[in-house]
Design a protein that fits this description.
FAD (chains A, B), oxidoreductase (chains A, B), homodimer, 20 strands, Uridine Diphospho-n-acetylenolpyruvylglucosamine Reductase, domain 3, Uridine Diphospho-n-acetylenolpyruvylglucosamine Reductase, domain 2, Vanillyl_alc_oxidase_C-sub2 (chains A, B), 4 domains, 5-stranded antiparallel beta sheet, FAD-linked oxidase C-terminal domain-containing protein (chains A, B), 17 helices, flavoprotein (chains A, B)
Chain lengths: 490, 490
């Protein structure tokens, strides 16, 4: 476990000897650059920063941490929104931004192999000349790293059709919390043994650090068509979404923005969305031309049948880009209409969309806190933006209450406390809303198996760290059979 | 660990007290019924059989085993082909065939919830009236159980397009090897925390027993079209397969049979495949009608361009069923042309198909052992059927050598020792061909976390069981940093 007794100067010397002094930062001013990730409300200055350039150096850093008993936190581009890469004050922040090689692009077996610091969009750029791309597309794809995507199992607008990061990573090279380099998965589908690859993707830095990532490439679609439909409100837009999915169409993306989000996007990027709309849907279809053509006509009809007041069809790539510009810049745009805001992230079953949106509106009215909604409607992944002014007495607290209450709504509707931003530092406290003690304990058995010293990103994901020395199954004092009233059996 | 000192009579009494005498089998004659699964070359009579009817009973059985220190093995329908459900002579075989309730079919959120003993095809039958089906379709789908599919991460002909069992299970209730009931995953996509669901699917009974399975339902396609193309040999058929995939078409299935497999199928089920064909491909497309129509024409053209000597298009469901009858009965049909045979299961990258098939033919000629090939060509999942006559001196050994050499070919080509049948008892010895000691040790850390007593299906999957008491990472005597020549760092 981390300790205030770690000798930071000695650890810095170990790191310099292992990977070279030019890859270790110990200057306090420089260290401050790394004090937070995309969730800027939490700030911790790390004791040291290491910038390894390959897997061997990364493993050497972890081994030095193990030897010193110092915690370590991995960080890619630092765009995460749950504080998953928040540094540890007594530990080493291992930054992967110098591990940016695209090792291989192999169209013949539809794979790319990259280092973890490679930017998401760079994979698609390297694959496009071969007729392929990398499908998962977080809004931050121009800057976020593949390693961070792996840690958080990142989603994006097109994950409705194509799945999350976990559906696109087939192999990893990983530094375990012991400092071993191991391979999980590979290039072929469905390797034998436990699917530790699957467990690692989304483990938020608690099971080790990915040093090489093998991803699936997806063939560029023959045809892409995008429409933007305006509705009187989110109820009608939600009904249109349900009708599209119920018709058996699987769009590449179905995105919704409500009136407040539209207002913000207009103020920021002048995307020209229909004025006065209570909600807009962006629906994108891709695939073989005959399929897209037939289904696009159906989507247009279903939007009209469900009360669309205006439908625009992107005439060319420039117009499509404009539709998306409003959506992809919406989070930042909210800064134009509110001094402060919380980006919330939850999931609900798509069928619960109208009810949950109504309840969010009620919460907003009750507490006098505006909430803008921008989200992946197709898979029920909400991103409510809770607006407030920290300068107004009590508003921060009320905004946090509303934000927390929204998560309660998601869980009560059969959903989840996070869709794609991860648990990280921010949502660890919410985990017991979804999981029983037994469920969380079972997860922590795996954490302890990988990281018995609790040095890999401690304090994240789990609300109550498990003491790894406890015997599994014997952690509640009594034998489980006795607790279950089965003592007479034995 | 298992032990000859387990008092079987006392354990039987515990089980009877826990779940009722009518659900416990201890009669030697009755126990023999369970001595093997689909891989009949290994036979072990279990000490006891338990037939729980719900999750609580299943957990009670596991707790009784834990209390007695007795190993336990779960079994569904017993159709597995890797000996994964081979009983333990001193342990309890936990048979799920009385857990056959379809708990819920929910078209609104495209999920079904079933008990583990439910037959694969029964899920589709329950979903069809709602316009849905369950996609993974092992050849044994009329008899294999969903619980067994989860344990082995079963595939099937249509997994090329739709993915394996792991892509279709969103939630599980599981009895851990401690006897706790926990939930992994749920109904929503992408829950937070470790994806233990993914690790559990395909863990072959070593991490616990699934007692409730939530699966994705897939909408019945608007259109299905199937063709059967004959070729001079597997080279031409393989080239056609590659051409189809390279054209960006993702068929629902691309299945290949070579001359010997065709001969066997004809002898058994008179499916009327083109006489004299050196290989046949069955290509099935499904999806929206306009897509299927456009792509089907292209598939037909690509088959002709690559030397198809005859192409038949299924005129109706009856003819489609006939095409598939030959393919799906091929394994059993081989019994018509050979007294004994081994069903092998390996994966290769699709691009290596022609070369590996040629090498298998050379092996066959060199050793005088016939090999029939029936396989999922689209995703490179081979099923060579190695034919022999156990009555002929030395043939069994030569057949086993050829079968093992085929796996070596698969691994050397960048593939895997199993595609969908699992490692089980049969292939544990081959695991070191694919994984380093560190890789296997990392997997076993997870096994030890779940099952520190090694009671859950011991002897399967791993060639060398790990002693769970060993400190992780410290198992090779030296500190890893020293081994890596990094001792000077510390």
């Amino acid at each position: 476990m981390s300790t205030a007794t770690t000798d930071i100067d000695a650890l810095a010397a170990s790191l310099r000897a292992a990977i070279g002094a030019e890859r270790v930062i110990s200057d306090r001013q420089e260290l401050r650059t790394y004090e937070c990730d995309g969730l800027a409300q939490y700030k911790v200055v790390p004791a040291l920063v290491a910038l390894p350039e390959d897997a061997t150096q990364c493993a050497a850093v972890v081994r030095a941490c193990v030897a010193a008993g110092a915690p370590f936190v991995a960080r890619g581009s630092g765009t995460g929104l749950s504080g998953g890469a928040l540094p540890h004050a007594d530990g080493v922040l291992i930054v992967t931004s110098r591990m940016r090689d695209i090792i291989e692009v192999s169209p013949a077996d539809e794979r790319a192999v990259v280092q973890p610091g490679v930017i998401n969009l760079a994979v698609s750029r390297a694959a496009t000349p071969h007729g392929y791309y990398y499908a998962p597309d977080p809004s931050s794809q121009q800057i976020c790293s593949i390693g961070g995507n792996v840690a958080e199992n990142s989603g994006g607008a097109h994950c409705l059709k194509y799945g999350f990061t976990t559906n696109h990573v087939t192999g990893l090279e990983v530094v375990t919390p012991d400092g071993d380099l191991v391979r999980l998965g590979g290039r072929a589908p469905d390797p034998p043994g436990y699917d530790l690859l699957g467990a690692f993707v989304g483990s938020e830095g608690t099971l080790g650090i990915a040093t090489e990532v093998t991803v699936r490439l997806v063939r560029l679609p023959e045809s892409v068509r995008t429409l933007l439909a305006a509705f009187a409100g989110t109820d009608a837009a939600g009904a249109a979404t349900s009708a599209i999915i119920a018709a058996g169409v699987v769009p590449a993306a179905v995105e919704m923005m409500d009136a407040l989000a539209i207002e913000a996007a207009e103020a920021a990027v002048h995307c020209g969305y229909p004025p006065g709309a209570g909600a807009v849907l962006i629906v994108e279809l891709d695939g073989p031309e005959p399929e897209v053509a037939a289904q696009f006509a159906e989507v247009e009809r279903l939007c009209r049948d469900n009360g669309a007041t205006e439908i625009r069809i992107a005439a060319d790539d420039a117009e499509r880009a404009l539709f998306w510009k409003g959506r992809k810049s919406a989070f930042a745009a909210v800064g134009r209409i509110s001094p402060d805001y919380i980006v919330q992230d939850g999931v609900i079953p798509r069928t619960a969309l109208p009810e949950v949106l109504r309840r969010i509106a009620e919460l907003s009215a009750e507490r006098g806190i505006r909430v803008a909604n921008v989200f992946h409607a197709g898979d029920g992944n909400l991103h409510p933006l809770v607006l407030f002014d920290a300068a107004v007495d009590g508003e921060t607290e009320r905004a946090e209450e509303v934000s927390g209450a929204i998560l309660e709504l998601c869980v009560a509707a059969g959903g989840s406390i996070t869709g794609e931003h991860g648990v990280g530092m921010d949502k660890a406290k919410h985990m017991p809303r979804m999981f029983t003690d037994d469920d969380l304990d079972t997860m922590q058995l795996v954490r302890c198996a990988f990281d018995p010293r609790s040095l890999a990103n401690p304090g994240k994901v789990f609300p109550t760290p498990r003491l790894c020395g406890e015997a599994p199954g014997r952690r509640r004092g009594a034998h489980p059979a006795q607790e279950a009233g089965l003592a007479e059996v034995f």
